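Database export, one record per block. Field names are fixed; values are copied verbatim from the stored entry.
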Amino acid sequence: MRQIVLDTETTGLEVRQGHRLIEIACVEMIERRLSGHHYQTYLNPDRAIDEAAREVTGIADEFLLDKPRFADIVEEFLAFIDGAELIIHNATFDVGFLDAELARAGEHYGRIKDHCTVLDTLTMARERYPGQRNSLDALCKRLGVDNSARDLHGGLIDVQLLADVYLAMTSGQVVLDLGFESTKETGAQAIVTPLVLTRRPRVLRANEEELGAHTQRLDALDKSAGGQSAWRKQEMGA
């Protein structure tokens, strides 16, 4: 199964007021594991970013002046997500902006639903944790996902965190960042090809610090499960 975890950043909150995309970020999962492929691009929105959006994203208008417009990258973006299940937190927001950009690029591009299916993790979280805060930060705290690097909203950071949150909500499985490195490129987009191993890797044993971190992770999963998690039971041979 191919899934794409997706996040966007925008010039403001209301697509009906003409606000535009300024960043798209995606990471690919195959059979619930990060494949090492990701897609990320900044976009020139041809309009100013709201002050509140600048504060949240840390993206300045000047930074986007030499970036491509959505019409310039629409083909490669659709090729990346084609046929996948999109995993998005508050999908109505992101899909609304993506559909508006597709409409501007040309009617023949259709809408997001014409290219893939969509799973909304906010809807999933509200069903699982009714009456509780279900922002990405709140879910990270509840599920024991480390979000200490999330000082500002950023596409690649958010999609990696959302991948962790999604797997924790659906099975407790932990994402391993194999073959994926965050990019510091300021260009339009970056696609990473995963490393292909040509010989058997060395087996490294966990040290005391790593074992301690593993125990803390199990404690967090136990807390979210309201008792012994499946991972704790498996480790104890239960």
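Remark 1: DSSP finds eight helices and six strands in the chain.
Remark 2: The chain has a mean pLDDT of 82.
End of record.
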